[in-house]
Design a protein that fits this description.
Layout (H helix, E strand, L loop, with lengths): L1 H14 L7 H8 L18 H5 L6 E20 L10 H11 L1 E13 L4 E13 L4 E4 L11 E26 L2 E23 L5 E24 L3 E14 L2 E2 L5 E18 L1
Antiparallel strand pairs: 1-2, 1-10, 2-3, 3-5, 4-5, 5-6, 6-7, 7-8, 8-10, 9-10
Amino acid sequence: MKRLLFALSILTSIHANEISISHHHLNELTGNPDAQYKPVAIAEEMPDPTEIRRGKRKRFVITYSQVTQSEINSSFTMSPNANSSYQLNNDEMNEMMRENLELSDSHVIAVEYFLNENFSIELSDTYRHYSMDGMQVGDANGGNLLQGAGTFGFDQNDEIHDIQIGAKYSIKVVDVPNFEVELGAKATVGVVHLNSTSTFDFGPGQRDQNNFNDFAGYSYGVGLNAKVTLFEHFFLQGGIEQRNYVMAPIEYDNGVSHQIDQDGLLVFLGIGVQF
């Protein structure tokens, strides 16, 4: 009962903005009549803003990036069907594609979720569109085309979606109110969907168009990125990624087989929001 009355008296004193506890009360509370106590000064201070921000991580992150540079090495292997109207040499096809097939559009859309302050999982789609600037003309070198024609026209159009899931480690190197700088590293694996159309034109009435639209293989890679966040929610991000693509032979609807092998670097720059 005495302890209850003592606690009530302390509570009343706190609400009155002053605490006054005698040695007699403390000795009675602790049950030690010989104990000695010294007063301790209590000062009110503002909390450290750095300590308040520590551990304050936005969990959901959405990013849209443009691929600003692509250093992807590609090789192409054609395996024509026996009934096809053309029999083209692989070296000839490789040279034509390397010289004329260009990256016309590429972007990355990513959604990221932070499990804790540093580790996150990321789901993303890297889109690349390769096309030729008009119909290219080649020489069959020996008249291997239908009816002995020595030239042909060729056009190629490839749309690639690399759908990835990965793990990422990030660390903030600058963390002050309304401004953050963050560095990250990630490893990802993905599945590759390809929509590819090849068109061969050998003259009047001699035109082959082949299409493939399906999953074509898988990918894997690692990347580094830097992110600058302004006002906690909006950021700019840039990075570099090394990717390798393992593609199965692509069989077009007319029986022609086409193998694409790719690996190399992608450089990207983007914007995003986090909440």
